[in-house]
Design a protein that fits this description.
Two copies of one chain form a homodimer.
Chain A (H helix, E strand, L loop, with lengths): L2 E7 L2 E7 L1 E3 L5 E3 L3 E6 L3 E9 L1 H13 L16 H25 L6 E9 L5 E5 L5 E3 L6 E5 L5 H7 L6 H18 L7 E7 L7 E5 L4 H20 L9
Antiparallel strand pairs in A: 1-2, 1-10, 2-11, 3-4, 5-6, 6-7, 7-8, 8-9, 11-12
Helix pairs in contact in A: 1-2, 3-4, 4-5
């Protein structure tokens, strides 16, 4: 499994992905699930992937080679705005489905893939999309300023509770790390290291990119303090007033 | 959907179930999912249900009428120990599958049901089981002192982090309420009111049973304090030391 999360806040975009890929518990590997397309000052896009690795790698390869679309073969370096980038990812997904879908169905393998696409292209605002295996997509809004793919549920409650569009990028980093930590603790198939990227609004480049390993002191601190804070918080709750009766 | 959780701790058993049943978002009803079998001083058992309501009601009806087993027709009032009670629930599930499974499959409806069975029978210790739709089951242990059915993921991280076999019943109540609160916030198909039961070890009766509604002052307090504690905890985390660089 995979867990990827993207935040869409006023100050920009925060992206986090784990790196574990597995086909059964005896076949576990590390693959980067975050792909960056960057032309500093012009555009910066990040594509995060979840699902069947053969499918997601085929989609990423299509995007690098260019996807046949309206007689052209654009890549993410060519599209003029973020919504066209999301359409291009969708077209690449449909292209892979057209080639491999029938053979996969013949083997009883689901066409399982999903993508987060985040970024900014000169002249437009930052945007965050979730592209489905059907090639269609949704977009994060100020009301729901995050999107997730993969093993999404364990890490969702903290985002539901604490994240708003006005959350700062620094606080956003804390939130995605806490969200990932909850997922790592509850699902062994989501694994370290994890890849973080920060794209500040208007920067038109990756503001920060960091691979966080087991040895990362800050992530250690987040995990320990968060666990302690949760324990303290529940211990400090009073006992039910109706318990004695 | 449903969320039911059972804790198996040194002091006894804590059980919590929501009451929402839905078939599509325009058909939402309230049904109790917690069924108590009690002969004070002799035995106390609680059965919590998740899945297709027609199936789980058929299983509960079988258990009330008695399940044909080895030439007898025992109910949960007749079995001599908790493991036999779990087998009886499994036998009832298999009986319903034998009658309805083919017709359901013909309509493309999955045989979707699962059960938590908790209780104590005179002469034996308290026990907590999860019975699957195949009629087989697992048991909670001191190492993993909780079991869940239904929409289990949102409420799992806090249990993974904070619950141990030595957690008190009073603290256990807090934990299942926090776990339910996380689920309620993140999944609209899990709904209030919620049913709580406490079975203290050795009591051989229901120690406490309470339907918690939207108006319950203590649950309000838990929800508000927990949300505030999470927000405070994440805000108090320092910013990453590598963010400035």
């Amino acid at each position: 499994m995979t867990y990827c999360v993207g935040l869409y806040v006023r100050e920009g975009l925060v992206l986090l992905a784990d790196t574990r890929t597995n086909a059964g518990i005896d076949h576990v590997s590390t693959f980067g699930k975050m792909h960056i397309v960057e032309a500093p000052g012009q555009r910066v896009l990040a594509l995060l992937t979840a699902g069947n690795l053969a499918i997601t790698q085929a989609v990423v390869a299509r995007l690098q080679e260019g996807v046949w679309l309206d007689g052209n073969r654009p890549t993410l370096f060519d599209v003029g705005q973020m919504s066209h980038a999301a359409q291009l990812v969708g077209a690449a997904v449909r292209d892979v489905f057209a080639r491999d879908g029938q053979a996969l169905a013949g083997q009883g393998v689901a066409f399982d893939c999903s993508f987060l696409l985040a970024g900014e292209i000169l002249g437009g605002p930052p945007r965050l999309y979730l592209i489905y295996s059907a090639g269609n997509f949704i977009e994060a809004t100020e009301d729901t300023p995050f999107l997730q793919i993969g093993e999404v549920k364990y890490g969702k409650p903290i985002l539901d509770r604490a994240l708003t569009f006005d959350t700062s990028l620094a606080d956003g980093i804390k939130l995605v790390l806490v969200s990932m930590d909850s997922t790592l603790r509850s699902n062994l198939t989501v694994g370290m290291p994890i890849d973080l990227a920060l794209i500040a609004a208007g920067a038109l480049r990756v503001t920060l990119r960091r691979r966080i390993t087991e040895e990362d002191g800050y992530f250690h601190l987040v995990r320990e303090r968060w666990a302690a804070a949760l324990r303290d918080a529940y211990l400090e709750l009073p006992a039910p007033d109706w318990l004695a009766s």
